[in-house]
Amino acid sequence: MEKQYDVVIVGAGPAGAGAARALKDSGLKTLIVEKGKIPRYKMCSGILFPSSVKVIRDNFGEVPDNICCEPKIIKGNRVFLAIGTPFIDIPFAAFDPGEDLDEYGFNTWRADLDSWLCSQSDAEIADETRFNGYSKDKGTYSVRLTHKKEQVIVNAGYLVGADGTISRVRKSAFPDFDEGVGLLPNYEEYYTGKIDLDPGYLYLFMDRKLTGYFATVFHKNEYIVVVTGVRKEENVG
Hints:
The structure is a single chain. By secondary structure, the protein is an alpha/beta fold. The chain has two domains: 4-46 and 115-180, 3-Layer(bba) Sandwich (FAD/NAD(P)-binding domain), CATH 3.50.50; 60-104 and 182-229, no CATH class. 16% of the residues lie in helices and 38% in strands. The chain contains five helices and 15 strands. The strands form three sheets. A six-stranded mixed beta sheet has the order 8-2-1-11-10-9. It has a six-stranded mixed beta sheet with strand order 6-5-13-14-15-12. A three-stranded antiparallel beta sheet has the order 3-7-4. Strand 10 and strand 11 form a beta hairpin. It is globular, with a radius of gyration of 20 Å.
């Protein structure tokens, strides 16, 4: 990592990777900062809806097979409004409309997806690096970082916050903004075993006896993944 860049991007997810990709071949010296060690775990289904597949295809290229898991093809959603009732089949086209979209989505490993997306730019990547804040003087951002336990300052002309819902960059720039943001915590577990659900779908359970928001179930290779969305401070057990 050097001391001077044109652009510093905080966050190595799709937003950060997309910003870096847009700057590719621009001549701007770009740094992506990521607090985890890439590839890093991220709680996410990794399921790419058809519109996401198109965005990636148009801007990054075809999604490579080696970042996908089985089943690679996800046909759509199946929604259970209540336990014991039949599911409702909802194809992607019903809620993800658009022109020139595939009928189905892809099942990827989110950690590998993000790593691949970032690799499609010419940005330098500093993982295991935490954003601590910034100051600004005459158009130059002095970005305070912790890089592998060492405190460093990097200067840049532009600072991009792509660090997720609870953004440290946003909080630094707009300290009061998060007061109006509603949070929806999620809890994720991986299981092995058998379940009477076709692996080719994303399942949603809306029954309030299960969750204060909704729960999802999907397959990734040998795993059955269960995610529960809850209201803040609600007991997920």
